[in-house]
């Protein structure tokens, strides 16, 4: 994508502050030409997403580099601590209940993830039914599909 991250870092020298969304779950925040923060949001369960954050800075002198790393961890903690109460109250808590979502073409990755998730869930239900010989725990509308 346009030279990858290295090409974007060169572009960052022109503009001192910008936020760039690379994929639906990856973004880079350029605070200064020498300090860039990248975050990846990875779904790990039904209602849980892990956020992986990486700092990029040009500081090489060990004491100053360590100070910047501690500052980055501390500021990340403060931001997530402030955001957690808001994120926890978002609805729907389960993406399968997100029937009213207004998706746009850039949400194609999200749509593909939801389809794959549904297919895996259905496969697990069918496997459980074969093992037990009984109808597994299914939502009421999917039982009538038999």
Structure description:
45% of the residues lie in helices and 21% in strands. The protein has 2 domains: 4-88, no CATH class; 95-143, no CATH class. A 4-stranded antiparallel β-sheet has the order 1-2-3-4. The chain is of the alpha+beta class and 146 residues long.
Provide tags for this entry.
146 residues, alpha+beta, disordered N terminus, four-stranded antiparallel β-sheet
Give the helix/strand layout.
Elements: H1 4-12, E1 18-23, E2 26-32, E3 35-43, E4 49-57, H2 62-88, H3 108-132, H4 140-143
Antiparallel strand pairs: 1-2, 2-3, 3-4
* Helix segment tally: 4
Based on CA inertia axes, which overall geometry fits? elongated
Percentage beta strand: 15-25%
Helical proportion, percent range: 40-55%
**Which residue ranges are poorly predicted, with pLDDT under 50 across at least 5 consecutive positions?**
1-7, 9-14, 142-146
Widest sheet: strand ordering: 1-2-3-4
Described by strand count, sense and barrel closure, the largest sheet is:
4 strands, antiparallel
Number of domains: 2
Order of helices and strands: HEEEEHHH
Overall pLDDT score: 75
Kindly provide the radius of gyration, computed on alpha-carbon positions and rounded to a whole number of angstroms.
21 Å
Question: Span from first to last CA?
Answer: 45 Å
